[in-house]
């Protein structure tokens, strides 16, 4: 199973996924797709010698959504890891039940357009929530909306700030995302056999 990681930021989740699947016999991180010039994840791709493509808005939303490029890299499964653009229907149709995303909050709360990075943690803390967490879900036409696959939570202590909460959330993401990708992509492997 060839996996493409879509990311817009630093790429800490991408790095954990690359480390986890480095010696994996069935699942390979085959491509990094990024929409932000200079993003940290592009440096990770270079260091790891993994092909990467920098995508343009025009072609992504009004062109072929890079479906051809993904096919050229024999991509079977797409993992969003801090990718900030909504996935166009064309791409969802080309990869049915083969695109998953991780969101740094307990969906269905604190999801949707504009709800990313520290904006999420600020909103969670402002609402005086006592817990937060991560949500991994299949991607559909709406932001942070598709069928849930997995959630894990952490408590919010009195002194927590958006930054300290972000640290706790990243720890949960790095612990669980590689294992969930392995499980879901592994099931795909059995489906395509
Ligand atoms: N969607 C969110 O964006 C962040 C990306 O972090 P990184 O993987 O680029 O470090 C993660 O917290 C993820 O949940």
Question: How would you describe what is shown here?
Answer:
It comes from Niastella soli. The model has no long low-confidence stretch (mean pLDDT 95). Helix 1 packs parallel to helix 7 and helix 6 packs across helix 7. Strands 3-2-1-4-5-6-7 form a seven-stranded mixed β-sheet, covered by helices on one side. Helix 1 links the parallel strand 1 and strand 2. It is of the alpha/beta class and 193 residues long. The longest helix has 31 residues. 40% of the residues lie in helices and 21% in strands. The structure holds 5-O-phosphono-beta-D-ribofuranosylamine. The site of 5-O-phosphono-beta-D-ribofuranosylamine has 16 residues, from helix 1, strand 5 and helix 7.
